[in-house]
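As a next step, the fold was encoded as tokens, giving this record:
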Amino acid sequence: MHGNKKNQTSAGRGRSIDGIIGDGRRLGLPDGRLGAPSATPFHANRAQPANSLGSNLRRAEGFHAMRSGSGALGLAVTGAEADLLLDEPIILDDLPVSKAKKRWPFGWLSNWGLKRSALTLLALIIAGGLFMGLKFYITQRHLFRGGGGAPALASNIDISKLRGEGDGRINILLLGNGGPEHQDGPDLTDTIMIASIDPVNNKVALLSIPRDLWVKIPADGSRKINEAYYYGKLNSKSKDSATKSADGVDWVDKTLEPLLGIPIHYHAVVDFAAFRQTVDAVGGIDVNVPKELSVKDFLWDEGMHRNYSLNVLAGQQHFDGTRALLYARSRYTSPRGDFDRSERQRLMITALKEKIFNVGTFSNPVKVSNLLSGLGSNIYTDFSRDDITRLYQVMGKIPASNIVSIDLVTPPHDFLTTGNLGGISIVQPKAGLSAYGDIQNYVRNALRDSFLAKENASVAIYNATSVAGLATKESTLLKSYGYNVTTVDSLPKATDPAKSTLVDLSGGAAKYTRHYLEQRLGVTAQNSLPAGLGVTPPSGTKFVIIAGKDVNGTTR
């Protein structure tokens, strides 16, 4: 490719940086000088006379610094000599940078110290990128195992996958436990909260469950709710830690879903260390603390093995990881004890959400790295990678003003009270240990299905049987799920049909309400009222239910 091929096998030839073969002397002149005219200038892409290249290849292979000579580069060069310079290979030399610039427009890199620094910086950037990539790969494989599923999280929702009212939301069970740094009951979940996301109307509700709530844990008798996760792990037949955690949250699901009357789609178990490190990773969080949630307490910090004086005044406060954790855990100096602690935890989670979803966090590689370290092995989730990506998109659209906190102890929705059972301090429904009907009605309405809320289709119910109060009973049930029941009545004459009839008068404008009612009643909706019904639904009614014997006494 360069010069005469017959002369390219000589062991004595040198190589320039850019691959052009030279003889170690100044190219173009037989005596190695620049500045004297030559009848045979060298051009890389032309055939050369025998005495111009090859016959003079004498120096050993490798880089050789250019020597100063009579042909100094400061001389003006024209004609054939200009051609020589254009064809001359780039050779590292010891000329000052200011002179090197005259030969090479990127002369600043001719200084080996600067060049080495640039290469070192490039290597660090590449190594940092590889580290971040590897770190993220390992962490995301640990965090995003999959297993959960909310139909409403999909960008294009498949209506056939909505199994019932409540699937129009994304309900995430958040459990906080002590973990390794809490030797006394590391798997007892002091924080139990449901983050319920409405992706259609861009809202979030945080529902706190008191840790001392007395419940029936499946296959393990009655206990406090904070023991369900522990016993689920304890009874797991697996030795794999992730599977044990999955079995633990499964027991919590089986305990909570029947009590609250809503589905749980995803789970996240976070220990003290993960919470502390996550807050620190994002540079702390800022919260406007209400007066009633201010705290002055002296606590033992298990993670740091020290006493900690916690003094959180009302007003704008900054929290690092330790202060946020101990504030979220404090309860003994509060008038309402565990109930106030739940409210503090909601404050911390809301503030942390705002900080994590701030654009500055994800554009800062140090914060991202610290965030991944904080999560590490101190958290369990059953999100997939696609789930978490979509969840980030959904949450990014929800402002802090659309995040509300709800509980079961604040009037007028104060359904729980404290009690004593065999010397154990517990929390229980005011209506009785197992009376959760009022709680279910409240929770289902507070966490109303996204599609039912958006369509808000009016429903009329007519009792077609001779069973008194049947339509009222059905109305109460449907209202507890968030249906907009506007009419409850009986037909003029009871016909006692075995099966209920559903009529869709919405003209296709309320397809989700139709889907849910068809599933609930086990029928296919008709598009017009049956003849001889004997009643006329009010104007604007979208659905008519003619209740048959199949709804009598049901608890659907």
